[in-house]
TrEMBL record:
Coiled coil (UniProt feature): none
GO biological process, any: methionyl-tRNA aminoacylation
Protein name as it appears in the record: Methionine--tRNA ligase
Domain Methionyl-tRNA synthetase anticodon-binding: from-to ranges: 411-547
Organism lineage: Archaea, Thermoproteota, Thermoprotei, Sulfolobales, Sulfolobaceae
Binding, Zn(2+): 143, 146, 156, 159
Annotated catalysed reactions: tRNA(Met) + L-methionine + ATP = L-methionyl-tRNA(Met) + AMP + diphosphate
Domain of life of the organism encoding this protein: Archaea
Organism: Stygiolobus azoricus
Length: 578
């Protein structure tokens, strides 16, 4: 089985915030780490890249009097370093839309769709103040369906309906706020209507696709799929490959979606195995997982599969499109201009990055918008990580040190109690249950299985009380600590996708090494043998030194720290990201 993992490509005109991160890149990384353990490293490819074309970058470059690529070069390298080094994201290839491999592939792919492409004149919104044609997303106004006053020209974030700039009530330029005019211009359109039945049949019959994704895609089909413009009148982008398309570039959404394929091609080309990319895009033994925010569902569940179908090449369609709802910050939307939220280069100054990784997955908005609060973040770290997992590990290993000289004791299965057998069964089943959830893109639900095993371990210790048994029945104490120590190995493996360094630390305290080479299907095995020498035992986690008695004071303290951090960090950001 080959597993293809992708995260939505972040646009480089700003540093991603925590909501961006959990919606795509962090979620994809957690799944990719799990998949490598489950299916083998050689059978998993994880890609993404910087989305760097389009109007916002072009405008910013004009303001600064520089070429757009100068700005995107800096921003790409800055973001890439944050992902790889700070957040420990394990991309096989983090590329960019300025990659020559990408540009070459996009042009070639679109030429193969000519059967479904037609040329039409269209009235495109034009801002007389800014002197440029405006992409759909740069038109804002009131949604004609639900009345949402901040809808974009391509889609309403409130009701999810597909829009066009002409449908908006009181349309305005998102750059300057002036009312645009509509100018006639020639464009190349991809006829989505040709694929209505195929999209409906595919998405309806999928046994793995989340219901929110199915709902949005089927809603689009029901409303009637219409031709979508592939070209734009922007200068900054990939030149359109069609005959007569002078001064036209490819619409960023069409090219970014094709970036998943080009990134795979580029990766294997660099590896010196040019044709291996096909193993992850063709055939019946491929599963593909896309991690995105809910506003990107239509592009991944309708436009991408339609393009893949139109190619006639037999590309594998998405298996799971794991879409998150919005993560709010203290009840409000993230906003750079209003300084609401936390950006990924600021977060490391406030809390251990692996704590962040776990907290964000625990708050992952899988079914509805979720509110990040510092009170909840502190609770997750201090209670779930420190008390549930860390305290359990410390209790078990300290007793092995104290009662059995630091060696895993020899059990006697013939005198196992019902409580012993019950907990053994839980240890064996926990990775299976978590794996089933991970396969559906339900990462937050997966952490529940991890925490349940740790909590059940603590309950098991309290029930069997080896500190008393050691005085009256040493063999029973040995049985308990043998079983409990093996449960820690299982917990470490289950924790690895979320917190690789802390999982490795726990693994080392048990006396083992090389957790990244463990196989998921063996996570519930009793692989620790009697006589195994455990390592140095020390607290796995540290409680956050933040008072939560007064939530208002807690917020004030965090915001004060954040202001200090921002003054320092913003000076070091590339020009485009300040």
């Amino acid at each position: 089985m080959k597993i293809f993992v992708a995260s939505a490509w972040p646009y480089v005109n700003s540093v991603p915030h925590l909501g961006n991160l959990i919606g795509s890149i962090l979620s994809a990384d957690v799944f990719a780490r799990y998949a490598r353990m489950k299916y083998g490293k050689e059978n998993v490819v994880f890609v993404s890249g910087s989305d760097e074309h389009g109007t916002p970058i072009e405008i910013e470059a004009k303001k600064r009097g520089v070429h757009p690529k100068l700005l995107t070069d800096q921003a790409h390298e800055y973001d890439k370093k944050l992902f790889l080094e700070t957040w420990k994201i394990t991309f096989d290839n983090y590329t960019r839309t300025e990659s020559e491999v990408h540009k070459e592939f996009v042009r070639s792919f679109l030429l193969n769709l000519r059967k479904y492409i037609k040329v039409e004149e269209d009235e495109i919104p034009y801002c007389e103040h800014d002197k440029l044609f405006l992409p759909d997303r740069f038109i804002k106004g009131t949604c004609p369906y639900c009345g949402f006053e901040d809808a974009r020209g391509d889609q309403c974030d409130n009701c999810g309906r597909l829009l066009t700039p002409k449908l908006l009530i009181n349309p305005k330029c998102a750059l300057c706020g002036s009312k645009p005019i509509f100018k006639r211009t020639k464009h190349w359109f991809f006829d989505l209507s040709e694929f209505s039945d195929k999209i409906r049949d595919w998405i309806s019959s999928s046994p793995y696709m989340p219901e929110n994704v199915k709902s949005v895609a089927l809603s689009w089909v029901k409303e009637g799929l219409k031709p979508r413009s592939i070209t734009r009148d922007n200068a900054w982008g990939i030149p359109a490959p069609f005959e007569g398309a002078v001064n036209k570039t490819v619409y960023v959404w069409f090219e970014a979606l094709l970036g998943y394929i080009s990134a795979t091609i580029e990766y294997f080309r660099k590896e010196g195995n040019e044709e291996k990319w096909k193993e992850f895009w063709f055939g019946n033994d491929v599963k593909s997982y896309y991690f995105i925010g809910k506003d990107n569902i239509p592009f991944h569940a309708v436009i991408l599969p339609a393009m893949l179908m139109a190619s006639g090449e037999g590309y594998v369609l998405p298996t799971v499109i794991a879409s998150t709802e919005y993560l709010l910050y203290e009840g409000q939307k993230f906003s750079k201009s209003r300084k609401i939220g936390i950006w990924i280069d600021e977060a490391k100054e406030l809390m251990d990055i692996e704590y962040w990784r776990f907290v964000l997955i625990r708050l992952r908005p899988e079914e509805k918008d979720t509110n990040f609060t510092w009170r909840e973040a502190v609770r997750i770290v201090n209670t779930e990580l420190n008390d549930d997992i860390g305290n359990y590990a410390n209790r078990v290993l300290s007793m092995v040190k104290r009662y059995f000289g630091g060696e895993v004791p020899n059990p006697d299965e013939s005198v196992y109690t019902d409580d012993d057998r019950k907990f053994i069964n839980e240890i064996k089943e926990a990775p299976k249950k978590m794996g089933e959830l991970m396969e559906l893109g339900k990462l937050k639900a997966g952490t529940e299985e991890l925490l349940k095993l740790a909590r059940d371990g603590n309950s098991y210790l309290n029930l069997r009380a080896p500190w008393n048994l050691i005085k009256t029945d040493k063999q029973q104490a040995a049985n308990v600590l043998y079983i409990a120590t093996n449960s820690l190995r299982t917990i470490a493996i289950m924790m690895y996708p979320f917190m690789p360094d802390h999982a490795s630390k726990l693994y080392s305290q048990i006396g083992l090494s090389g957790i990244q080479n463990e196989k998921w299907d063996n996570a519930g095995d009793f692989a620790i043998k009697p006589g195994q020498k455990i390592g140095n035992v020390e607290p796995l986690f540290k409680k956050l030194d933040l008072s939560i008695e007064d939530e208002f004071k807690l917020q004030e303290e965090i915001h004060r720290k954040l202001e200090e951090i921002r003054k320092k960090i913003e000076k070091n950001r590339p020009e485009l990201l300040r």
